[in-house]
Amino acid sequence: MNKGEALTYINTGSDWKQGFETDPSIGFQLVSTPGDMAKFIQSLFDLKLISQDSLNQMKTIRDDEGLGIVTFTFAGKTFYGNTGGGDNYGSWLMYQPEEKLVVAYATNAKVHPVKDIISGVIDIYYGKPFEIPPFETIAINPAVLDKYVGVYSSADAPVKFTISRKGTTLYVQPGTESPASLEATAEDTFELSVGIVFEFNAAKSQMIQRGGRNRTYTKEN
Questions:
Q1: HEC per residue, 153-194
Q2: pLDDT for 160-172, tens place per residue?
Q3: In the chain, what are the domain boundaries?
Q4: What is the distance of C-alpha 183 from the center of its chain?
Q5: In the CATH scheme, what is the code of domain 142-219?
Q6: pTM score, two decimals?
Q7: Cα 155 from Cα 163, distance rounded (Å)
């Protein structure tokens, strides 16, 4: 890799392996660092990049989204920003305007839910009680996981989700993106590291995506 760029890695449950690298031109992906992301969002809210009117439009939230911005609530405070990821990379960028607080995070090997990491960082910053998680995983019988494997679609979403299993781990693949591992939080509930939750109902052949806008997907035959 050039200029200190990091490769992406996937945890198989017993080891790490280098992940698939999608060309950044596919899906208009951006390559950055937490430091540059912090400078960007600070400049955005300091009106060095756009006008106040344009910023107000970005901050106007409809259907859980603004124009390139969503809101997050941590420690009872509203942050503005967004998340990103792909090929097991992950990023989180947000800004608290009253306190001019920037939170910028990036990883090339997602395992622990990023939302939990960000929440813990904010709690520590504000002096709130924080306990280091035990990092224990829930082992689900592969026979149960196989009931969730398949292609899921929804009339309300343009992208289909492919759920696959490798060993004792489920993977989710939106559209043609690379598969990302899911962490089991219950026998029928799994979390993506950016804080998106997938809940399965094998009897109904359904999958519910929670996080931002909730959607129900049906497994195709």
A1: ECCCCCCCEEEEEECCEEEEEECCCCCEECEEEECCEEECCC
A2: 999 999 988 899 9
A3: 9-125, 142-219
A4: 12
A5: 2.40.128
A6: 0.64
A7: 18
